[in-house]
Design brief:
The complex is a heterodimer of chains A (172) and B (164). Chain A is α+β, with helices and mostly antiparallel strands. Chain A has helices at 6-15, 23-34, 43-50, and strands at 63-68, 73-74, 82-91, 98-102, 115-116, 122-129, 132-140, 144-146, 164-168. Classes of the chains: A alpha+beta (172), B mainly alpha (164).
Chain lengths: 172, 164
């Protein structure tokens, strides 16, 4: 075992000294959080997510198909910028539901559900995305956060949950 | 004797819409967060804003928090990201102010030679590259373990469980 330099211990002890909390700053913080409530999943879903689901059999045949379909369209304001329809698909047999979450839908798991294919093995949805970089992931059965295993992984955004990234060019 | 309420319980109650539970989390973790942000940014007002920003983001994203993670480590990683962003913005501002700074009488603001051990430590810390400062503070001051630190860094994701 290596002895640590006593000076380093003294430095660390100095840095561990608490900084006095300003009650006004604490109040501003609490006011800000009240103005920005948690986004919520439906109660049962949130409870299941909280229980941190085990790694499920989902991965058995999981694969992801992402096809960017050519063709521009108007953006949501009907303006001049182009959006691109993008098909997100997840092979996920024997699950009850899959949702797409990303920076384009404010990570809302209720906003963009995927539809099952005839056999029920694949789930897919097509959304229109603006040009640029988008981070996204899938939420399976409302409980399981699944990044796209075939897409580049997005840099960690500090929330501790991995997501994927897609780049939409200005024009295809 | 009462049993302290765990962070996990407080997060659960916060998700259920209990503002007092999140307030308890703030009171529990604000001091450590403020200390970290102040040590990283070297400015109290910047530190308070970074901490507020981190708590607001954590509050909005509570459903993305997973119990296998320590709430404190999760929160500190969010804060570390906010500090990085603020430090980068401060650097950009600094570049714009360089011309002005060059005209300031430096003798009027130069650190005094016997400014105390605390100030010497803060100056030494400020001289470190931001990444090293962040790692040093998270490891030695906030006492996160290496796995907890790595989850907030650009370290490769765990290939087995994708917990990156």
């Amino acid at each position: 075992m290596i002895d640590r330099d006593p000076l380093l211990d003294r430095v660390i002890a100095e840095l561990k000294q608490p900084i006095e909390v300003d009650p006004a700053a604490r109040k501003r913080l609490l006011d800000a959080t009240r103005a920005s409530p948690p986004r919520s999943l439906p109660g049962a879903v949130a409870a299941a997510l909280w229980r941190r689901p085990a790694l499920v059999a989902l991965a058995a045949a999981a694969g992801i198909v992402l096809a960017v379909l050519a063709g521009p369209g108007a953006d949501e304001e009907g303006g001049e910028r182009w959006t691109t329809p993008v098909r997100f698909a997840l092979a996920a047999p024997a699950v009850r539901g899959v949702a797409l979450v990303g920076d384009f839908n404010d990570w809302d798991p209720k906003a963009t559900p995927l539809e099952p294919s005839g056999s029920g093995d694949e789930w897919a949805v097509t959304v229109r995305l603006r040009p640029g970089r988008h981070a996204y992931a899938f939420v399976v059965d409302g409980t399981r956060w699944v990044p796209d295993p075939t897409a580049p992984r997005a840099p960690d955004d500090g929330f501790g949950v991995p997501s994927s990234v897609i780049l939409i060019p200005e024009r295809l | 004797m009462g049993v302290p309420v765990s962070d996990a319980d407080l997060v659960r109650r916060s998700r259920g819409g209990d503002p007092a539970a999140f307030e308890a989390l703030v009171d529990r973790h604000y001091p450590d967060c403020l200390r970290y942000a102040f040590r990283m940014l070297g400015d109290r007002a910047e530190a308070e804003e970074a901490v507020q920003d981190a708590f607001v983001r954590a509050h909005r994203a509570l459903w993305r928090y997973r119990e296998r993670d320590q709430f404190r480590a999760w929160l500190l990683r969010i804060l570390a990201n906010r500090c990085r962003t603020r430090a980068a913005a401060a650097q950009r501002r600094l570049r714009h102010l360089e011309a002005f700074a060059a005209s300031v009488d430096r003798t009027a603001v130069a650190p005094q030679p016997n400014g105390g051990f605390g100030r010497a430590v803060q100056r030494a810390l400020a001289a470190l590259p931001a990444e090293q400062r962040e790692a040093f503070l998270l490891k030695h001051v906030e006492e996160l373990d290496y796995n907890e630190i790595a989850r907030g860094s650009r370290a490769p994701a765990c290939p087995r469980c994708g917990c990156g």
